[in-house]
Design goal:
InterPro entries: Integrase-like_cat_sf (IPR013762). The protein is mostly helical and 368 residues long. The chain has 17 helices and four strands. The chain has three domains: 2-110, no CATH class; 122-285, hpI Integrase, Chain A, CATH 1.10.443; 329-368, no CATH class. The model is unreliable at 358-368 (pLDDT under 50).
């Protein structure tokens, strides 16, 4: 909405239009593209955008507005509105790509070239996890004498669950009390005897100790969250003191104390707790970075395709997205693996090595 407001302000400067609906006249389409280019800081000499994402977002917003105008026209039986919306959509679909979005996407991609790709360091992740575990134990004792630490315990628990599960920032924060209670009832059910015998002793212990909670994720998908005994104890403590902290009316498990109905935001909590720890690279720890971190570890471990599918499903990824965006940085992969093949191909001494089948090449893959 803010971008559309700025867009309308720019249109007023350019052609003196007063309302957003006036911008969708077919005669104003050229002015619309000019205004978008001005907002996105388009450079005619270099044919690049300084703010390409602004141009792309405005394009989607303007098309949506045209669809709304068309819908209103149909409801009101106003043929002028219907034609106005249809005409703009036709112009958008035929010309917008060439005039705006194609160049904007190129500018957006070029900005990503040669940028450092950092993922969280294992030492920092362990330090943060240990800090959260110790803090939660201390806060569970403190809350018995004062509910002032309720907010701190809620934040620590939210961050600990997210850190363990590597979920998107907003998925765990929107966990509801009813979802946890239903999961508690289901977890009490005994495991199928045949399934249990097929598991190792370690896997059986994990099934007995962990709780699985299903919440609503991105695009309405069902997302699974695993809770350790320590996390379960934290949540039970929060539920026990909800009334004293004045959050008993809120549906969210991590609701803020007082009358606020909205839960704590995962990214804000992570940043706050990272700054309270003695981490070497706190800025590298983000929810997206943590998801890349676990995917990278899985790649280095060279787990099977089946396990990759299961991990991607748990993280809420399509397997293609998982492989393309949540893996070892491409620069590392190319320099450490592909370069070995190129060096062998360029070396006279290693020519005989190339005569062997690829499976026999002595390339260090990191596995056994």
């Amino acid at each position: 909405m803010r971008e559309l407001g700025r867009f309308l302000k720019e249109m007023k400067k350019l052609v003196g239009l007063r309302t957003l609906e006036e911008c969708f006249e077919s005669s104003e389409f050229e002015s619309v593209t000019k205004s978008v280019k001005i907002m996105a800081e388009y450079n005619e000499k270099t044919n690049t955008y300084n703010k390409p994402s602004v141009a792309l977002k405005l394009g989607y917003s303007l098309k949506k507005c045209a669809q709304i105008i068309r819908s209103e026209g149909l409801k009101e039986k106003n043929q002028i509105k219907v034609e106005k919306g249809n005409t703009f959509i036709l112009l958008y679909e035929s010309d917008w790509g060439d005039l705006v979005s194609c160049t904007a996407r190129q500018s957006l991609e070029s900005k990503k070239f040669n940028n450092p790709l950092t993922i969280p360091f294992c030492g920092d992740v362990k330090e943060l996890y240990d800090h959260l575990k110790k803090s939660s134990a201390d806060l569970r004792e403190e809350i018995k004498s004062s509910t002032d630490v309720y907010a701190s315990l809620a934040k620590v628990t939210l961050c600990e669950i997210n850190l363990f599960n590597r979920k998107r920032g907003g998925e765990v924060q929107r966990m509801k009390v009813s979802e946890f209670e239903r999961a508690s009832e289901v977890s009490c059910a005994p495991l199928n005897a045949e399934v249990r015998t097929s598991l190792s002793e370690m896997e059986q212990r994990l099934c007995d100790s962990l709780m699985r909670v299903e919440v609503r994720g991105k695009f309405g998908k069902r997302v699974a969250i695993l809770l350790t005994p320590n996390m379960i104890e934290n949540i039970k403590t929060l539920l026990r003191y909800r009334k004293a902290a004045k959050v008993d009316q809120a549906e969210y498990l991590f609701a803020r104390p007082g009358n606020a109905q909205h839960p704590y935001r995962g990214p804000d909590v992570l940043r706050e707790l990272c700054n309270s720890c003695n981490l070497k690279y706190p800025d590298a720890i983000t929810w997206t970075g943590l998801r890349k971190h676990v995917a990278t570890i899985a790649q280095v471990m060279e787990i099977t395709d089946t396990m990759q599918d299961q991990l991607a499903g748990f993280l809420g990824h399509d397997i293609r997205i998982h492989r393309d965006f949540y893996r070892l940085p491409l620069s590392v992969l190319q320099k450490s693996k592909v370069a070995q093949i190129l060096m062998k191909a360029s070396s006279q001494e290693d020519f005989k090595e190339l005569e062997k089948s690829p499976k026999e090449w002595r390339i260090e893959t990191g596995g056994k």
